[in-house]
């Protein structure tokens, strides 16, 4: 059996002035699969490249996936740490996720910078209010997003990062 691929990952909770969070709808189960229905909603972000800091990875991924270009210092946190082990394309991925916050964003998502795999995935995006997340029957990553968001919406994060469930 092949050892899991340990993948450091940086993610950004993008919040608009109304406190809504930007999420993408995960549809792809393997790199060679045809995208299906949305299986879960998650924040922009992705893998950290060799020699790249978490903040640098977060802003690079944000630019690639949303077209939003920000300075690393604009990110608040890290606010959450999450470990998620799952399979993608027949390989076990042990994702070690670090979440940052970007507040008061007014932006129209531009997906022109997406990677080939992200283009293939053709994932929808939308801004979700806390009430919409809490009332939804959809799956979110992290799992307890509705319970976690109020702590972020209350104001700037001042504590150490919180470990959150898958």
Query: CATH superfamily assignment?
Result: Nucleoside Triphosphate Pyrophosphohydrolase
Structural class: alpha/beta
Question: Which residues sit in consecutive blocks of at least 5 with pLDDT less than 50?
Answer: none
Bulk shape = globular
Helix content: 10-25%
Strand content: 25-35%
Describe the structure.
- The protein is an alpha/beta fold.
- It has one domain (5-161): Nucleoside Triphosphate Pyrophosphohydrolase (Alpha-Beta Complex), CATH 3.90.79.10.
- It has helices at 54-66, 116-121, 130-135, 145-153, and strands spanning 5-14, 21-26, 40-42, 45-47, 76-88, 91-102, 125-128, 140-141, 162-164.
- The strands form 2 sheets. Strands 4-1-6-5-9 form a 5-stranded mixed β-sheet, covered by helices on one side. The chain has a 4-stranded mixed β-sheet with strand order 7-2-3-8.
- A hairpin with a 2-residue loop joins strand 5 (76-88) and strand 6.
- The two termini are 24 Å apart.
- The mean pLDDT is 89.
In short:
The chain is of the alpha/beta class.
Detail the topology: elements first, then pairings.
Elements: E1 5-14, E2 21-26, E3 40-42, E4 45-47, H1 54-66, E5 76-88, E6 91-102, H2 116-121, E7 125-128, H3 130-135, E8 140-141, H4 145-153, E9 162-164
Cofactor: Mg(2+)
Domain Nudix hydrolase: 5-153
GO molecular function: hydrolase activity
Notable characteristics:
single chain, 166 residues, alpha/beta, Nucleoside Triphosphate Pyrophosphohydrolase, 5-stranded mixed sheet, 4-stranded mixed sheet
């Amino acid at each position: 059996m092949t050892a899991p691929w340990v993948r450091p990952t940086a993610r950004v909770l993008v919040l608009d002035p109304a406190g809504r969070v930007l999420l993408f709808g995960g549809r792809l189960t393997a790199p060679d699969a045809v995208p299906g229905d949305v299986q879960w909603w998650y924040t922009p972000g992705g893998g950290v490249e060799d020699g790249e800091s978490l903040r640098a990875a977060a802003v690079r991924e944000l630019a690639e996936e949303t077209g939003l270009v920000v300075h690393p210092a604009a990110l608040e946190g890290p606010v959450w740490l999450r470990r998620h082990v799952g399979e993608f394309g027949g390989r076990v991925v042990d994702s070690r996720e670090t979440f940052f916050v970007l507040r008061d964003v007014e932006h129209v998502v531009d997906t022109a910078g997406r990677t080939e795999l992200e283009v293939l995935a053709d994932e929808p995006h939308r801004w979700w209010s806390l009430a919409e997340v809490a009332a939804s029957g959809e799956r979110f990553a992290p799992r307890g997003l509705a319970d976690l968001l109020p702590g972020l919406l209350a104001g700037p994060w001042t504590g150490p990062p919180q470990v959150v469930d898958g």
